[in-house]
Specification:
binds flavin mononucleotide, 196 residues, Nitroreductase family protein, plasmid, 4 strands, 4-stranded antiparallel beta sheet
């Protein structure tokens, strides 16, 4: 079992167990078909009233646009994310076409990124999402229109070698993964009946 595979209390799909958020990416770039498949998976995510309140902007390593995206990241993320094959931003559209607030937009965007994440896993890739970026800088640098909200950044690529990372990052890369037990957040019938 690869060292980062989740040690689950109950069986889950192997692809879900083996997904994790690496910082070490290999130098390998992505085929355009691979990129298209990931966004296609996002496209088919469910959303409230099928409003699909999401947008994505990405660039591949080796392009000047990639450097611009890299400059939007906090240095602690840019340190390793600059080696990913692709960097991108996930954008929320918080307003419905009739001008009223879409309170489910962020939920739907997260689900679209979830779809993209698992398509990436199915293609042998990894995604590392990041809240650590400057949305105001991204808006300006990437000409993002006012009706879209830069919500998260993401780095995508094939897994690299942890030994290629600076020491401080290497420690995080090799750390064990952990989660709260299901009993801490799953309730049955009536609050707060926990499940074991
Ligand atoms: C919305 C979101 C924001 C995150 N922001 C960062 C970040 O800025 N920097 C980072 O290194 N990891 C970030 N992560 C990754 C999480 O730290 C990671 O998913 C969590 O520790 C669980 O680890 P795993 O994905 O390997 O299971 C973020 C994840 C999500 C979903």
């Amino acid at each position: 079992m690869p060292y980062k595979t989740a040690r689950t209390d109950h069986p889950i799909h192997p692809m879900l167990a083996s997904r994790w958020s690496p910082r070490a990416f290999s130098a390998r770039l992505l085929y355009s078909d691979t990129i298209a498949s990931m966004f296609e998976a996002a496209r088919w995510a469910p959303s409230a009233n099928n409003l699909q309140p999401w947008a994505f902007i990405y660039a591949e390593r080796g392009t000047s646009d990639f450097e611009v995206l890299c400059e939007c990241l906090k240095e602690s993320n840019a340190l390793w994310a600059r080696n990913a094959a692709l960097l991108g931003l996930a954008l929320e559209r918080p307003t419905k076409p009739d001008g009223s607030p879409n309170i489910h937009a962020r939920y739907d965007l997260g689900q679209a990124v979830g779809h993209m994440t698992f398509q990436a896993c199915a293609l042998g890739l990894h995604i590392h999402q990041m809240a650590g970026f400057d949305p105001a800088h991204a808006r300006m640098a990437l000409d993002i229109p006012p009706d879209l909200l830069p919500m998260t950044a993401f780095a995508i690529g094939y897994l690299g070698d942890a030994s290629s990372l600076p020491a401080i990052v290497q420690e995080k890369e090799l750390a064990a993964r952990s989660r709260n037990p299901a009993s801490a957040f799953v309730h049955t019938g009536r609050w707060p009946n926990h499940v074991d």
